């Protein structure tokens, strides 16, 4: 008897990689705006008279609505109920609206001098734009994760997620590299934000193209013999939250990312204070980090797809994180080349854990609950991304000031011990996850590609 094989659009390699290319470009545009203001800090201070507190308020705005108004969780529920096309387009519109408000606030059109709740009104309006954008870009992140699972489950899922993260980090690198030259060329601090706004509009058009591909995929699934998926119900949220494996991934995520993204916010200062690097060049060393991950994240994703060992990869990443922050904490080899080597090692750790962690979620959580699960993980993670930079800033001011004339301003030992502690906790959670995997048989140590 000849068995009839029912194919769907996802079985076409060209179709699924094209779909990935389109949505990854949308994420690149999102990551570009996320980091565009970081290199502009000195210009904001010199030209718009912001101080560090203003900059801190603006930066934390990214998480305001996601964390306190639970917008990310609502985004996840909407994603599971309404699907990727509706949610993705909504997220793109939010990113464009947020970027538009932020551009207006920074542009010459904005009337200077006002105050809202005692804070510079320009900072507050730019923050409002960034907060709306934050909801959009984080919701786009969970939507794209679900899109990748939809097209790549049982195939090159971790490689696809790795390539998507690599493309997005290209946006981060772009922000770090071209922002200041662009602002200098146009003699305007708002010029790079205008470029981001234009790119986000193109990213939205790209997502519109994706919705056509997604419709075709759904049609091909309907025409195949594939089992229809059960619709999402609100009680699914409790099911996700009752899953111990889910909580271990969420904990690992917040601990690991808290030791990387917030560390990067202080890494340039660490280079100046501990390794005596010239402040003009100090950004180059942490700037190496996204570049390394662009190559390594897909590489490790490919390894996970073919050989498995996801839980082990996460453990190795956590061990490397402990070594890196431990070495930054120790009073040893205060030389720029040593700092560079340690930073490159951090790049390897920052490729290992994400390349295995995100593709492991669909092995723990059923597909119909994935939007909610990714959203909850992002929500837990956002607390760390918001809280840890504030904690480190407070620790530096309170316990680490050196202050003598011609001396470095801060001793970074205590902050680096805090970052090392996050690494130790992440390792404990990774070990617990590996044990839970053995008990429940999630298949974290198995390859993602299913042999036919
Ligand atoms: C910051 C954001 N919440 C985040 O965690 N981004 C991850 C990628 C998550 C999506 C994986 N498909 C990152 O490492 O940038």
From TrEMBL:
Compartment(s) of residence: Lysosome membrane
Keyword match Membrane: yes
Superkingdom to which the source organism belongs: Bacteria
GO cellular component: lysosomal membrane
Membrane topology, from the record: Multi-pass membrane protein
Principal location listed in the UniProt entry: membrane
InterPro entries recorded: MFS, MFS_dom, MFS_trans_sf, MFSD1
Role summary: Lysosomal dipeptide uniporter that selectively exports lysine, arginine or histidine-containing dipeptides with a net positive charge from the lysosome lumen into the cytosol. Could play a role in a specific type of protein O-glycosylation indirectly regulating macrophages migration and tissue invasion. Also essential for liver homeostasis.
PANTHER family for this protein: MAJOR FACILITATOR SUPERFAMILY DOMAIN-CONTAINING PROTEIN 1 (PTHR23512)
Family in the record: Belongs to the major facilitator superfamily.
Assembly and oligomerization: Homodimer. Interacts with lysosomal protein GLMP (via lumenal domain); the interaction starts while both proteins are still in the endoplasmic reticulum and is required for stabilization of MFSD1 in lysosomes but has no direct effect on its targeting to lysosomes or transporter activity.
Name assigned to this protein: Lysosomal dipeptide transporter MFSD1
Native source species: Odoribacter laneus YIT 12061
């Amino acid at each position: 008897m000849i068995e009839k094989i029912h194919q769907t659009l996802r079985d076409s390699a060209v179709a699924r990689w094209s779909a990935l290319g389109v949505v990854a470009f949308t994420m690149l545009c999102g990551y570009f705006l996320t980091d565009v203001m970081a290199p502009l800090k000195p210009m904001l201070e010199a030209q718009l008279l912001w101080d560090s507190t203003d900059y801190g308020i603006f930066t934390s705005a990214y998480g305001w609505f996601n964390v306190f108004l639970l917008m990310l969780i609502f985004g996840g529920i909407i994603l599971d109920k309404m699907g990727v096309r509706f949610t993705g387009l909504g997220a793109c519109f939010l990113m464009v609206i947020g970027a538009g408000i932020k551009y207006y606030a920074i542009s010459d059109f904005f009337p200077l001098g006002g105050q809202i709740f005692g804070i510079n009104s320009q900072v507050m309006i730019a923050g409002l734009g960034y907060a709306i954008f934050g909801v959009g870009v984080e919701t786009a992140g969970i939507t794209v994760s679900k899109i990748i699972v939809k097209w790549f489950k049982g195939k090159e899922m971790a490689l696809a997620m790795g390539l998507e993260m690599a493309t997005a980090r290209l946006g981060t690198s772009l922000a770090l590299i071209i922002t200041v030259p662009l602002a200098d060329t146009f003699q305007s601090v708002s010029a790079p934000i205008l470029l981001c706004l234009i790119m986000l509009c193109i990213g939205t058009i790209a997502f519109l193209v994706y919705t056509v591909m997604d419709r075709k995929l759904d049609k091909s699934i309907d025409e195949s013999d594939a089992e229809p998926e059960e619709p999402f119900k609100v009680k699914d949220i409790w099911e996700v939250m009752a899953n111990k494996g889910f909580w271990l991934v969420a904990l690992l995520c917040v601990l690991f990312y808290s030791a990387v993204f917030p560390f990067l916010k202080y890494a340039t200062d660490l280079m100046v204070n501990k390794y005596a690097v010239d402040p003009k060049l100090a950004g180059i060393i942490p700037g190496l980090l996204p570049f390394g991950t662009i190559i390594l994240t897909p590489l490790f994703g490919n390894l996970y797809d073919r050989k498995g060992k996801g839980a082990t990869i996460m453990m190795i990443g956590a061990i490397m994180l402990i070594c890196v922050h431990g070495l930054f904490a120790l009073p040893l080899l205060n030389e720029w080349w040593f700092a560079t080597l340690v930073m490159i090692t951090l790049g390897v750790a920052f490729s290992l854990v994400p390349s295995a962690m995100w593709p492991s979620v669909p092995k723990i959580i059923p597909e119909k609950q994935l939007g909610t699960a990714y959203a909850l993980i992002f929500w837990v993670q956002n607390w760390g991304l918001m809280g840890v930079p504030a904690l480190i800033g407070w620790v530096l001011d309170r316990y680490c000031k050196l202050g003598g004339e011609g001396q470095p301003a801060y001793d970074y030992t205590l902050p680096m011990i805090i970052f090392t502690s996050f690494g130790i906790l992440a390792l404990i959670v990774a070990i617990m996850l590996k044990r839970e995997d053995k008990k429940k048989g999630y298949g974290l140590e198995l390859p993602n590609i299913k042999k036919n």
